[in-house]
Design brief:
The protein is an alpha/beta fold. The chain is built from 13 helices and ten strands. α8 (139-154) packs across α9 (169-179). The protein starts with 6 loop residues before the first helix and ends with a helix.
């Protein structure tokens, strides 16, 4: 392909990330109620994943995040899947996103990056613990959990990894340890946060930036699956500690209720484009949405940030 968007050039400019995947699949009529969440749809109805990827590209997104967030060897094993089936699902998530991206390019000339989602340990537990990070797991457990699937994702041809919804400094260390095993791979690290200053496990987000800011494989640092009202302050905390590009993709502002496997509360996205402009002004470079955001929200964001 010619005139493609490279990661190096993308890091020098504003870029729109896609929005929520699992919540959008549910809005489209898919069943995401079991422990594998979007991973189940990846196995049973990959065309639905492709449909959501394309909807976000059509809305203006130029970064597509794969459907691998919930795909892990331990999580899939609990549901009766072999390690071979899990590895195939990880590869499939990247291949699917790349195919949708390539078709979009052929049809429109618009190019996008593919970011392979590396969900946290808590995602495999399916109990909401990615929003507090208090795992019954030690550092070695976390490294073992992440290493094999990161190797498969990195070797499947994404433009970078999206290490996302990280709730603790310890898991940040573990993921960074794994990333260093693949020196040609770049990644972003984004955190789930509990307030204006701290990630979910009550550690200052500045400490996370301090750990990552001199790591050459870390392309961006940021925040995701966090209420919109917290984003501007958290960007300021990161910007005070690092000059790396900042990625921000909040959820809709609702709260995940693990027992019912549903989002509760009221959305904060009445004017997503206006909010995104504030985040851009605060220092975020790549901006998108997480759970509860839709292609319409990404379209509003695109119009606000890039159409002028």
């Amino acid at each position: 392909m010619s005139n493609v968007l490279t990661l190096e050039s993308a890091l020098q400019q504003p870029l729109i990330i896609d929005g929520g995947l699992g919540s959008e699949l549910e809005r489209n009529g898919c069943d995401v109620s079991d422990r594998l969440w979007s991973g189940r749809v990846l196995l049973d109805a990959p065309q639905q994943i492709a449909k959501v990827h394309r909807a976000y590209l059509d809305a203006g997104a130029r970064v597509v995040i794969t459907a691998s967030y919930q795909v892990s060897f331990s999580g899939f094993a609990r549901e009766g899947f072999s390690s071979v089936a899990t590895a195939n699902a990880l590869r499939k998530s990247v291949e699917l996103a790349r195919r949708v991206r390539d078709d979009f390019f052929k049809e429109t000339g618009g190019y996008a990056l593919v970011a392979a989602s590396v969900g946290p340990y808590g995602a495999a537990l399916a109990d909401g613990s990615e929003f507090h990070g208090n795992y019954a797991a030690n550092f070695d457990d976390l490294v073992q959990f992440h290493l094999q699937r990161m190797q498969i994702l990195a070797s499947s041809g994404p433009d970078l990894l999206a290490c996302e919804t990280i709730p603790s400094l310890e898991e940040t260390h573990a993921i960074l340890t794994c990333l260093k095993q693949f020196p040609d791979t770049k990644a972003w690290f984004s955190f789930s946060c509990r307030d204006h200053l701290q990630i979910s496990r009550t550690e200052p987000i500045r400490e996370c930036a301090r750990l990552l800011k001199n790591e050459p494989q870390v392309a961006l640092i940021g925040i995701n699956c966090t209420p919109p009202r917290l984003i501007e302050s958290l960007i300021g905390e990161l910007r005070a500690e690092t000059e790396k590009p900042i990625v921000a993709y909040p959820n809709s502002g609702r709260t995940w209720h693990a027992p019912s496997r549903s989002w509760l509360g009221t959305s904060e996205l009445e004017d997503f484009g206006k909010l995104a402009k504030r985040w851009s002004d605060a220092g975020a470079t790549w901006i998108g949405g997480c759970c509860g955001t839709t292609p319409d929200d990404i379209s509003d964001l695109h119009d606000s940030l890039l159409a002028a």
